[in-house]
Structure formats: structure tokens, C-alpha cells
Amino acid sequence: MPGSTGAGLRDDDKAVVAEVGRRYDSNQHLRDGAGHTEVLSPEFVDRFAVVGAPERCIARLQGLAELGLDRFIITTSGLGSDVDTARAADRRLVGEVLPALHEEQR
Predict the structure, then answer these.
(1) Same domain, residue pair 75 and 100
(2) Could you give the angle at the alpha carbon of 23 between the alpha carbons of 51 and 42, nearest 5°?
């Protein structure tokens, strides 16, 4: 977000955070293809988000839970995303990822 210092981040990650803040447009928040997301490399996203196939997301979320995190904010497709792609992602989240995490809690 604008104003972030990037404290604790590597220098290259600080540069990405600063550029996102410089480009940030609150009118485009959560929009697929928002201009401020153009600077997010796949490597940056992979370090700071849980993305990918259901099996990978399950493993990453389980790993975070093992570290002691017990609450997650989970979002799927952004506003303006392809409807069919967004529905498929939602089905995988609800049908595969969340049940696996719920089962893990038992």
C-alpha cells in the first residue's frame, strides 16, 4: 500500500513495494489487470502469496498453519477476471483446498 516502508524486506522486494505504492490507484483495487500490479513478478507473488494448483496451495497453507498462523484471508479472482476462469478457481478452492485444510484441523 502507499506509504509502506518495506521494513524487513530485501532491497529488491522493497523496490517492488515502493513501485506498487507509487502506481497504486484505489479505483482499481482488486481489479484484474490493475496498473499497479504490473510490477509484481511471478517470483515476488510466489514469495508473498499462496498461488498455484490446489495441491500446492494446500501444502503452502498447511505449512503456514504449522508455523502457528491460524487465520487466513483468502481471495480468488479479481474484478474483471474472465468469468469461466474465476468460476473454475472458486470451484477448486471450495471443492479441494478448503476441504483439505478442514480435514487437517480434525
Answers:
(1) yes
(2) 25
pTM of the full predicted structure? 0.80
- Looking at the structure of the chain, the number of domains it has is 2
**What is the H or E stretch that residue 9 is in?**
none
What are the pLDDT digits (tens) for 11-55? 999 999 989 888 988 888 888 888 888 999 999 999 999 999 999
3-state secondary structure 26-87: HHHCCECCCHHHHHCCHHHHHHHCCCCCHHHHHHHHHHHHHCCCCCCCCCCCCECCCHHHHH
Range of the domain at 101: 50-106
Answer whether 79's CB lies under 8 Å from 33's CB: no
Task: State pLDDT tens for residues 66-94.
Answer: 999 989 998 888 887 889 999 999 999 99
DSSP class of residue 90 equals H
Whether the Cβ atoms of residue 26 and residue 65 lie closer than 8 Å to each other = no
